[in-house]
Amino acid sequence: MDKIISQLKSLQKIKPAKDWVVLIKKDLLTQPIEFKNIPEKISFGEAVFSFFARPAFVVSSLIFVGCIVMGTFAYLGMQKRNYNLQAYIENLAFQNQENKEALAGLQDVQAKMDEVKSALVSLKASNDPKKILATTEVVKSTAKNSQTAVEKIKSSGSDLSQQTLASLGKVKETSLELQKTSADLQKETFLAYLADLKTKTLNSQDKEKLVKAQEYFEKGQIENAIILLIKIGETN
Amino acid sequence: MAGGANKKFAKIYDKYIDKIFRFIFLKTGSKETAEDITGQVFAKGWKKFSLQGMSINNVSAYLFQIARAEVANFYRDSSKFKIVSVGTVEEMEDTKDGLMATQEVNLMGQDIKNALKGLEDDLQDIIIWHYVEGMGFKEIGKLLNRPEGTVRVMAHRALKELRSQVDR
Fold first, then answer.
1. What is the dihedral sign for C-alpha A197, A203, A209, A211?
2. Which of A62, B62, B80, B84 is least buried, going by the fewest C-beta atoms within 10 A?
3. Which ipTM value was assigned to this complex?
C-alpha cells in the first residue's frame, strides 16, 4: 500500500479520551428535550414548522430567515432565503471601514430589518398562533445574532469610520427593538393560545404537551414550550 | 419512548463520536477545541433528532456538515489553518488501542502536518474522509455537493499534492 495512504489510515488511531466521551454522552442524553409525545413520523405541518421551531439550529447556522423581504411572512407570500446575517455584517464592517459598499450593505441590512418590523404587524394580524410563535422565535434569534455581531465588531477595537459606526449603532438599535417586539408578540400569542387550548377537548398526549409547555414557559424555556405547543393537534 | 430515543441516539453517538472528533481534531489541531466543537455537533444532532421525530436522513452527512460549519466558524476570525501537531498526535493516541510506537506516530504526524498544510480546505476534507475514514466518493460528493466524479478527481489531485509535498 502507498506509504502516504498507510500513514493517513494510521490517523484512525486518534480518538477522544474515553472519560470525555462518556461524560458528553451522559450530558447530552439528559438534556431537557421532550420526547414523550413526538411521533415517529411527522406530519407535513410539523415538517414545515420544525424548521421554524429550531431556534438553536437557526442561531448556530446564523440563518436570517424572512429578512429578505419580498412580501410578507410565511403564508402571506413572503419568500425566505438563508442569510448568514452575522457573518455578513462582520464581513462588511471589516472589509474596509472606508468602503462605501460596506456602509451601503449595512444600510441594506437596516432596511431589511425595518421591513421585518413592519411584517411582524401583518403577522400578528394573521391570527395564526402557530405561525406567529414559530416566526417570532426565528426573528428573535436572528435579531439577537445581528446584535451580537454588532457588539463584536464594536468591541474589536477596529478603526471604523464614523459612518460605519453610526450604521452599526442603528442596526443594533433595530435588533433590540425587533427582539422586544417579537418577544412581546410571542408572549401575548403564547398565553392566548394556551388559554384557548385549555378550553378545547384534547387527547391525553396533547394534554400532557400542554401541561409541559406551560411548565417550560414558566421556567423561561420558551423554545421548548413553543415546540410542544406547536405540536399540539398535529399528532395522529 | 424517551428511553427509546435515548437509546437510538446513543447508538448514533457511539458510532460517530470518534469520527467526528478525529475530523475536527485534524482540522484544528487542538484537543480542547476538538472536544468543544464535537460536543456542539452532537448537541445539534440531538436537537434535530428530537425535533424530526427521532430520525435524521443520512446521519453521517448531517454530522459532518455540522462539523465543517462549526470548524469554519471557529476559523472565521482567523486566516490560520492549523493542522494536527506532532505533540498532539502523541497525546491523542488511544493508549489501549494504539498499536504504533510513539516515535512512529510522531513521524506520521509530522508528515501529515507538513503535507496537509498546503492543501485547500476541500482537499483536506476529502483526504480525511476518504483515506482516513474510508468514506466513498459518492458519500463525500453528497457532503460537498459535488458530483462523485469530481470528488474522485479532487481526491486524486489531493493525494498527488500530498505525495509531492512529502517527497520534498
1. positive
2. B80
3. 0.78
